[in-house]
Amino acid sequence: MITEKLYRDFYIRCMGHIKSAAFIIIMCALSFSVSAQEFKKEVKTSYLKTCLEQADKDYDEYEMRLYRWWCECSSEKVSQQLTLTDFLKMKLMSKEESAKKMKAVIQVCTDTFKRNMTIYKEIKTNRNK
Q1: Distance of alpha carbon 11 from alpha carbon 95, whole angstroms
Q2: Are the beta carbons of 70 and 110 closer than 8 angstroms?
Q3: What is the C-alpha to C-alpha distance for residues 110 and 95, in angstroms, rounded to an integer?
Q4: Alpha helices in the chain (DSSP H)
């Protein structure tokens, strides 16, 4: 289950990756005039990859499907709602501030994931009784 500490730690790790990726993307955008659409696609791909790499190794098949859904939902929200300017601003923020902003962007995904994971764990527990 995603606790508040795991949640915060994930964002801090993920933002480090996104900040690095964002810096590279920004440099490319400045050099090659990358379109906003291409930027959003790259952010979505990078975020999804990083998210999936953070998966709990103890998840069963269904938990992993729920987690993958969360990663896909989150990457979609990030790519839709954050602009190049947002990433530049986040680059200047502390890790905690960046994590707080990111958490707000993907909150709907996280709430749904937590709710579905809780339901699944309850069913799984009741089945094992």
Answers
A1: 8
A2: yes
A3: 19
A4: 4-32, 36-53, 61-81, 84-92, 95-105, 107-127
Whole-angstrom CA distances from 111 to 16, 49, 70, 84, 115 are 23, 21, 10, 26, 6
| Cα–Cα separations (whole angstroms), residue 76 to 22, 60, 107 | 16, 24, 12
For residue 66 the two structure tokens come to 């729920």
Residue type, 45: T
62-87: pLDDT as tens digits: 999 999 999 999 999 999 998 878 88
Q: What is the model's pLDDT at position 113?
A: 95
pLDDT value of position 36: 73
Q: Could you give phi then psi for residue 2, rounded to 5 degrees?
A: -85, 115
Contact 21, 44 (CB under 8 A): no
Specify the pLDDT at position 123: 92
Rounded distance between C-alpha atoms, residue 116 and residue 17, angstroms = 27
Gap between the Cα atoms of 27 and 20, Å rounded: 11
